[in-house]
C-alpha cells in the first residue's frame, strides 16, 4: 500500500558550493569550450527554501513511478508548504509514511498513486492521517 521512506535532515555543505558551468549544456550540437563560464552553485540554495522545515527522504517502492519518483530516489520535502490539490505529499497514514499525489475536492481527500497497479486511497474519519510535507524536488542517481 505505501512506500517506505527513510528521513534525513539537511546538513551544511561547503559554503563555496560545487562548481557550476554557467551556460546551458547543449543536448544537441556541442558549443565551443570558450563559451563556458565557471562559477559556484549551492544545492542547498537551489533546492531548499526553508531550511528549518525541509527534510530529505529516500523512496522505497514503485507506487509513484508515473510521477518520476523511483525506488531509491531522494525526495526534498518542505513541511512549510500548504497542501493543495495535485501536490505530491508525504503523508502519515495509519502508522506508516507514504508519498502520493493529493486529490482534494471540498472536504474529501484521496491519495492517488502514479502507478495503475496501486489503489487510490480515500481518506476517512477512521484514518489516522497527517499530511507531513510537500515534495518539492527529487534527486536521482543515473
UniProtKB/TrEMBL annotation:
Molecular function terms, GO-annotated:
DNA binding; hydrolase activity
> One Pfam match, by short name?
Peptidase_S24
User: Which residues belong to any copy of the Peptidase S24/S26A/S26B/S26C domain?
Assistant: 24-135
What InterPro entries does UniProt report for this protein, alphabetically? Answer: LexA-like, LexA/Signal_pep-like_sf, LexA_repressor, Peptidase_S24_LexA, Peptidase_S24_S26A/B/C
Which Gene Ontology terms describe the biological processes this protein takes part in? Answer: DNA repair; regulation of DNA-templated transcription; SOS response
Q: Could you tell me the keywords of this UniProt record?
A: Autocatalytic cleavage, DNA damage, DNA repair, Hydrolase, SOS response
Q: Does the keyword DNA damage apply?
A: yes
Which PANTHER family does the entry link to? LEXA REPRESSOR (PTHR33516), LEXA REPRESSOR-RELATED (PTHR33516:SF2)
Entry's family note: Belongs to the peptidase S24 family.
Which named protein is this?
A: DNA polymerase V
Q: Give the species.
A: Tenacibaculum skagerrakense
Amino acid at each position: 500500500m505505501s512506500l517506505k521512506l527513510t528521513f534525513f535532515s539537511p546538513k551544511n555543505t561547503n559554503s563555496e558550493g560545487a562548481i557550476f558551468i554557467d551556460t546551458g549544456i547543449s543536448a544537441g550540437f556541442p558549443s565551443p569550450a570558450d563559451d563556458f563560464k565557471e562559477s559556484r552553485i549551492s544545492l542547498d540554495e537551489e533546492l531548499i527554501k526553508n531550511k528549518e522545515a525541509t527534510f530529505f527522504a529516500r523512496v522505497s517502492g514503485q507506487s509513484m513511478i508515473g510521477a518520476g519518483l523511483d525506488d531509491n530516489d531522494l525526495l526534498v520535502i518542505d513541511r512549510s508548504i500548504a497542501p493543495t490539490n495535485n501536490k505530491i505529499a508525504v503523508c502519515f497514514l495509519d502508522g506508516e509514511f507514504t508519498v502520493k499525489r493529493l486529490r482534494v475536492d471540498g472536504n474529501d481527500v484521496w491519495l492517488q498513486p502514479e502507478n495503475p497497479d496501486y489503489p487510490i486511497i480515500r481518506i476517512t474519519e477512521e484514518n489516522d492521517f497527517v499530511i507531513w510535507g510537500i515534495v518539492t524536488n527529487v534527486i536521482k542517481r543515473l
